[in-house]
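Our preliminary data section would be incomplete without showing what the modeling component actually yields. Below, a chain of 91 amino acids is followed by its predicted structure, encoded as tokens that our downstream tools consume directly.
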Amino acid sequence: MTVLFYFILILNGIAFMLTAYDKHLAKARKHRIPERTLLGFVFLGGTIGSGLSMLIFKHKTSKTSYLSRFWGILFIQVFLVFMWFYFNSSK
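Predicted structure:
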């Protein structure tokens, strides 16, 4: 369980930094990090880090297509965690 905790912690840190760096690139009008990459980190478990970075740096907060995919991934993750706890608590 400890390994999983550190994996998620590192993944969220990377997702946070990637989103912040993409904001920096956007301001500098340089080549950006693909949304597929940013959402890939969200999908793998970097939801909290990416979400915090979006709020702090106000990045991708008005792009509806990105937000709908972000919230869709978050909804699926919450549902899967709920189901995991539901089925494992009944034993």
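The chain has a mean pLDDT of 95. Residues 23 and 29 are 10 Å apart (CA to CA). Preliminary results of this kind motivate Aim 1 of the renewal.
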